[in-house]
Structure of Mechanosensitive ion channel family protein:
Amino acid sequence: MRLRPILLRTILLLTLAVAGAHFKGAAAFAQEPQAPAAAQEAPLTDTPLDQATKEIEKAKVQLTALQDGAKQNADNDDALVGLATKADELSRAVITISVNLRPRFDQIKNRLAEIGDPPKDGQPPEAQIVADERNALTAERAQINAVTGDAENLSIAVTKLLNEIIEMRRRLFADTLFRRTEISVSVLDDAASAFVHEVSEFSQALSSWASFVWKFKRFPLFAAIFLSLASALILLSGSYRLFGSYLRRDEAIENPSYIGRLSIAFWSTLIRTMALSVLLVTSFFFLNSFNVLRPDIAPVIGALFGAIGLVYFVGRFVNAIFAPREPRWRLVRLSNLGARSIGYCLLAMAIVNALDYLFGTIGEAMGSPLVLTVVRSLIAALIIGLILIAVSFGKPMLAKNGDPDAPGRHWPRGMGIILRVVGAGLILTALTGYVGLARFIATQLIITGAVVATMYVGLLSGKAISRQESFADTFFASFLTRRFKLGPVAIDQAGLLVGLAIYAVALLVGIPLILLLWGFHVQDLQLIAYRLFTEVRLGGISISLLGICTGILLFAGVYLLTRWLQRWLDGNVMARSHVDLGVRNSVKTGIGYLGIGIAAIIGVSAAGIDLSSFALVASALSVGIGFGLQNIVSNFVSGLILLVERPFKVGDHVVSGTAEGIVKRISVRATEIETFRKQSIIVPNSELINGLVGNWTHRNKIGRSEIPVSVAYNADPQQVMDILLELTAKIPLVMRNPEPHVEFLRFGPYSLDFELRFFLADMGDGMAVRNNLRIEILKRFKAEGIEIPLPQTDLTIHREARPALAEAGRDQPNEQESSADTLMEEEEQPVRQLRSKTADGNRKG
């Protein structure tokens, strides 16, 4: 009871003390002058030079740590791979430091060039502010040079470290392969006892893990299995939808084509193996992510999945290449017995390698002695060597009569000897103690051989599909033909693209697998790919394939966007606004060239190409323009003038030199004119700019049409003029303002000549209107009895009487009359011929 007043008294005293301190601090704050605002602001950020200096110091610390790590892990290849990756990242970071300082260095250099050198002795002194600026810039330039020098030295040191790591890994790989172990009876005894102990420990570990998972991790186990199966089924179902015809052999086909056999062999092996790989990889990933796997069991499960994938891949390869039970789908000339025996031998060697790898991983997980791993590899090498020797004595080749069921023939000359030498070499290498080398060779014989053979089949498939008119017979070509209505030429071009795609798939899948089998790590492949796509050096030029691809994609994207904008403006904005066709063409062309220019600039910038490097090319082009390219440049500039000034536009009726027709297209180099006989004439733009061009539809399409009419002299001129105007008034296409009129032109040699003149709103209708109007005029003239005369000439012949003929005529009157009649006929014959020719000419006219 007495404790409560004491507690209350203590709390009251603490409260008063805190309040007094608060008031004392407030009074002190009121008495002290307030600090200036500048002192209260946060410190200024570091300059780029300060940041670069700090990054250089940090990089030096990282380099020291990497060097120490390389010395400590000289015998650990996995650790060296990680160190190499970090060293490469450090090298790129150091290079980035120098690159970031380059713009500031160029600014200082340009500014110092503007300021100039300090005045010499005897010259007037310069302003102090100029001298201070020069000194500050000079000092900053010296600091940048120092930092850049440190960065270069650091980059050299990092490159040296990378080379040392590569040399360590190469030496470690060679030492591992050529490490020799004594093979004796005691070694085999030690291995046997170690194997018994390993089996016991692994059985206990596996049973304890299985019971733990079943009791506490049952749901994560089923979830991981379900997700893995779902991933594999999605891939497999999608593959069957796309490549279903290339995954199954059609039993109804009696004699499949070579391209069909190749395609099924390649795609069935690749896709089904990838589907199983996805299942195994995702299973391991989900089991590990859900904490189902223990640290001692996880490597074993991973090795088990790898062994399953290896055996399945070799099995699919054997079935695809050798087709033991389907000889008509076989890709090699083997008998049925030979195909089965070779396939079983290859599958047996794959199983031996897979088990060796699995048991080796179990030994590492259980901490088994090295002697057990050596003996396992020895046994695997001996088995594979014996299999190769046994295969060399077989008769797998197809009989001469081509019957696959008939007994086969021996291997080709030299092949059997090679197999025996390789098998004996494996056995001899293993027995002499080089077990690691024997195991490596045996593994490469099986896995690398299968990968290389599958790649080769893929390349053959791509070559066969790329062959002219070969792709048209495939299922995929039939689908493209039905879906996109492609013609034979387009299908053939698509076959070429599909062949190139198959080449790419075969190489991109096969080469990384081979590199992994020959000692490379995934980090090595990532580093190689990164350098290949970002830093390819040709002399002093650094090319980024990724940047180039990005630039091409951006160029294509902007180009397609430009084309879409052209179509949208032309079809929506300008068409709805009833803009003139020529204006629409000019706008479309201008937007097109502007878009291409912008796309080119964006693409080149994204590709990382320095435009200043084109200075030499530009100077060379200027010389070329001065000599051989001046006509091209002249046409280009003339085209731009035509598009902007628009003396004529698309759809205009123009006359230029010997060309007359309708303008169909105006580009920056030439203009296309289509004549009325549908002939396209390409006229360079410079000729249209420098020459005379007649444009019938420059301002508008209004034009005058004329029809000449000739009548006989006995016709009434006023009646003729009234008829012509009456007939013209009936045609709706003829304009009323200006109104039509008839001109009495002249008194012709045999006719009265008139000319009917009228205006049309569109000159394009002139031919049809004139044609119809002539028909109506002819009909009306016939109805009114108005004659259209034929061209004629009157010829008068004067004859004089001959005396001799007169005297003789008294004696021979009949002969004289006959001669005179004959002479008159001969003289009148040219006149008749002239009239006949004139009449014929008038009919033709």
Residues 1-44, 804-845 have pLDDT under 50 and may be disordered.
